[in-house]
Amino acid sequence: MSDEEVEHVEEEYEEEEEAQEEAPPPPAEVHEVHEEVHEVHEPEEKPRPKLTAPKIPEGEKVDFDDIQKKRQNKDLMELQALIDSHFEARKKEEEELVALKERIEKRRAERAEQQRIRAEKERERQNRLAEEKARREEEEAKRRAEDDLKKKKALSSMGANYSSYLAKADQKRGKKQTAREMKKKVLAERRKPLNIDHLSEDKLRDKAKELWDALYQLEIDKFEYGEKLKRQKYDVSGAPPASPASGVPHPRPLGPPPPARNMPGPPPGWPPPQPRPGAGRRAPRASVLRALEGPCES
C-alpha cells in the first residue's frame, strides 16, 4: 500500500471521527405520563443520522504507528532545517562582526599613522622655523657688530672725542636697556591672569566693577603724568607748550642759537641756473595790463 493511499485513508478516518463528534446526541426517551385530567402526548422522534463505518481498502493492513512515525520524522526534519538556518544566519552575523572589528582596527591604525606623520611634519616645520630664526638673529648680530665696528673706526679717525662718544653711547644704551626692563617688569606686575570661568554672576559683576575701577585709575594716572610732563617742559623751556590742536608752533627756547657745525660746502654747479623772467612765457593781454594799471593810477 503506497503512502498516498495511507494518507487518504487516514484523512477519511479523521473526517468520520469529526462528523461523529459534531453529530447531535440521540434524544432521550420520553415516558408517557398519564394524569387524570391532562394527557401529555409523546414528542416525535427525530431521525438519527446514518453513520457508516470507515471502509478500509482491501489489501495490505494500514499501520498507524508507521504513519505517526513518519509525521514525527517530518516534523524533526523541519525543525532541524530551522535550526540549521538559524545557526547559518548567526555564523554569518559573527563573520560580519569580525570583519567590522577588523576594519575598525585597520582604520584606527591608519589614523594613528596619519597623526604620527602629521606630528612629525609639524615638528620638522617648527625645527626649521627655529633654525631659520636663529640664523636670522645671528646674521643680524653680525651685521650690527660690523656696523658698530665701522662706526668706531669712523669715529676714531675723527679725533680725540672718540672715548667720550663711546662712553655716552654706552651710557645711553644702558639707560634704554634699563628703561625697557623696568617697563617689562611693570607690565608683568599689572598684567595678571584673568580667571573667571568658575565665577558666578554676582562675582562676575564685582570683577567687572573692579576692572572698571582699575581702568579709571589708570586713565587718571595717565592724565596726571601728561600734565606733569607738560610742566617739566615748561620749566625747562620757559614757555608754555603748544597744544597740538591749536596749530601754533612750539616757541624756540631762550638763549643763543647753537653753533653751526662744520658742514661741507655746496657741490659744484649749485644753485642751478634760473630761467629768464620772460623766457618761455606768452605776453600778457592788454586787458590784463589795464586791469593791473587801473588801481595804481587811481
Describe the protein.
It is a single chain. By secondary structure, this protein is an all-alpha fold. The protein has a domain of 46 residues. It contains five helices and no strands. It holds the Pfam family Troponin. This is Troponin T, fast skeletal muscle.
Topology record:
Elements: H1 3-22, H2 64-158, H3 162-190, H4 201-237, H5 286-297
Summarize the structure.
The chain has helices spanning 3-22, 64-158, 162-190, 201-237, 286-297. By secondary structure, the chain is mainly α.
Taking Cα atoms only, what radius of gyration do you get, to the nearest Å?
Answer: 62 Å
- The residue-averaged pLDDT reads 72
How far apart lie the N and C ends? 162 Å
Low-confidence stretches: 27-40, 244-266
Number of helices: 5
Structural class estimated from helices and strands: mainly alpha
Order of helices and strands: HHHHH
Number of strands: 0
Helix content: 55-70%
Any descriptors?
phosphoprotein, acetylation, mainly alpha, muscle protein, single chain, Troponin, 298 residues
